[in-house]
Design goal:
- This protein is an all-alpha fold and 116 residues long.
- It has a domain of 69 residues.
- The chain contains 5 helices and no strands.
- Helix 1 runs parallel beside helix 4.
C-alpha cells in the first residue's frame, strides 16, 4: 500500500461516517450522492421514468430497448481488475455505515441489508 493510501474501511468511515474527514469527503462533488439524490428533484419527486440496476444492466437494457423499439449495443469496455472490493474486506462498522448512509437506496431499489 502506498504511504498516502488508506484501506477501504478507513475510507468509508472518513467519507460516509458521522465525523467526515474533509480530506476525503467533498460535499460539493456529486460522486458522494446517493442514487435517490441523483434520481429525484429538490422536492423529492422522481425525475426518471426507468431505472436500470447495474447488476442486471444487460437484461434490463434489452427490455427497455424492446419497449421503445431501439437497437443499442452495450460493449464491455474498460474493465478493471485492480480495485475490486469484496464484501469480506468490509468491517461490520463499514457495513453499518454504508447501510445507514444509503438506507433510502436500499428501500427504494429493493436491496437487502447485510445482517451483522
Amino acid at each position: 500500500m502506498h504511504k498516502d493510501q488508506i484501506d477501504i474501511n478507513t475510507w468509508i468511515k472518513k467519507v460516509y461516517g458521522k465525523e467526515k474527514d474533509t480530506k476525503y469527503y467533498k460535499p460539493q462533488y456529486k460522486m458522494y450522492f446517493t442514487q435517490r439524490q441523483w434520481l429525484t428533484d429538490k422536492n423529492g419527486k422522481n425525475r426518471a421514468q426507468h431505472v436500470l440496476k447495474f447488476e442486471n444492466l444487460e437484461a434490463e437494457l434489452r427490455g427497455l430497448c424492446e419497449l421503445f423499439n431501439l437497437k443499442i449495443d452495450l460493449p464491455h469496455l474498460n474493465t478493471s481488475q485492480k480495485y475490486k472490493v469484496k464484501i469480506d474486506a468490509l468491517s461490520q462498522e463499514s457495513i453499518a455505515i454504508i447501510q445507514d448512509h444509503f438506507k433510502e437506496d436500499f428501500s427504494s431499489f429493493g436491496y437487502k441489508y447485510i445482517a451483522e
